Amino acid sequence: ASAWSQVPQGPPDAILGITEAFKKDSNPKKINLGVGAYRDDAGKPYVLPSVQQAEQTVVQQNLDKEYAGITGVPDFTKAAALLAYGPDSTPLKEGRVCITQSISGTGALRIGGAFLQRFYPGAKTIYIPTPSWANHKAVFLDSGLEVKQYRYYNKDTIGLDFDGMVEDIKNMPKGSMVLLHACAHNPTGVDPTEQQWKAISDAVKEGGHYPFFDMAYQGFASGNTDKDAFALRYFLKEGHLPCLAQSFAKNMGLYGERVGAFSVVASSTEEKARLDSQIKILVRPLYSNPPVHGARIASTILNDPKLNQQWLGEVEGMAGRIIKMRALLKENLEKMGSKHKWDHITDQIGMFAYTGLNAEQMTKLAEEHSVYATKDGRISVAGITTDNVGRLAEAIYKVKG
Ligand code: PMP
């Protein structure tokens, strides 16, 4: 018998299932709002001009293909930390941020999970928001952590359950690990305000909890990378010593290049050195060292002042187009005469909008209108264009009124 005769069939990936159904649909006006990747206003994947230019520079340099160190390309990780923590960051200036390149954001979370599993002195339970990016739970479970949840989304207001969130954080056992989406919460698009972040920071501090920031969309929410780093930087100012997962998939459009970083803020340079050594010991048996090409591209963009400026403009452009599509969708729904309020579409931020449509309505959207997205009512706003927004609004109006 085969060694694998007892392996059970697993369920298909929810997002990939949508793409399959979308591909099979013969309607020429079909719309795919399932996948979380940016599209331009023609609905096409977008390679940033700054990335094209940086890539040419990298190729022209004729660099060798030798291995990077275990923690990756130093020029990249240094610049990545600066982007996240900011030039005024005390821990950065004091040299107590331990950072490693990672296989994009997922890899950063996975290294983080493994690090916490091995060294976190408290209970090995991490709390993630309800709902959260579907992969968070799987990543942390596979890292050997226990996963619990805190309240986050209020389906009645289609907004933040701020009181529930703070109450849950306060009620966690002392010294719990808490995962926070730094900005552009996936899947809801609902972010705390700056005022609310301050209260969240207080609650985390009060509980002696450990904050783990997942920043997969820096710049993608507001269009400004500093503004989107508010929560992380505020926590640092407040004396928290968080860890951080960064991804350059969205803000540089480097999805398949897998460029990211994991960092831990230490309390001293001596502590940082110990953490550095352990991160290396952890990464080495996982994949030895990360790929260099994407990191070289990102490094070129981040370290060349002119290219960096250009890139920041392009990030602003992507975020701006998404914000515009939100406004257009709301406007079109109101024009149709929808009796519902759609303010949440423009209040929410980042790649995704939580429409408030239920699973049944989402099924109708697909079957009767060829509009495809996840059953939780999440749509990728990046898939909306000036050309399809009218048809989308009409479809939503027809299934929801
Ligand atoms: N965290 C969140 C919240 C995300 O939405 C994503 C991307 N969908 C990631 C992490 C990681 O993505 P990647 O591994 O492509 O960087």
Explain this structure.
Residues 29-396 form the Aminotransferase class I/classII large domain. One of its GO terms (biological process) is L-aspartate catabolic process. Belongs to the class-I pyridoxal-phosphate-dependent aminotransferase family. Homodimer. With 401 residues, the chain is α/β, with parallel strands linked by helices. It is 47% helix and 14% strand. It contains 16 helices and 13 strands. The chain has helices at 14-24, 49-60, 74-85, 90-93, 104-119, 134-142, 162-171, 194-206, 225-228, 230-237, 269-287, 293-303, 305-336, 343-347, 359-369, 389-400; strands at 31-32, 97-103, 125-130, 146-151, 153-154, 159-160, 177-181, 210-215, 243-247, 259-265, 352-354, 371-372, 378-380. Helix 12 (293-303) crosses helix 13. The chain is globular and about 65 Å long. The model has no long low-confidence stretch (mean pLDDT 96). 4'-deoxy-4'-aminopyridoxal-5'-phosphate (PMP) binds at residues 36, 104-106, 133, 181, 186, 214, 216, 247, 249, 255, 260.
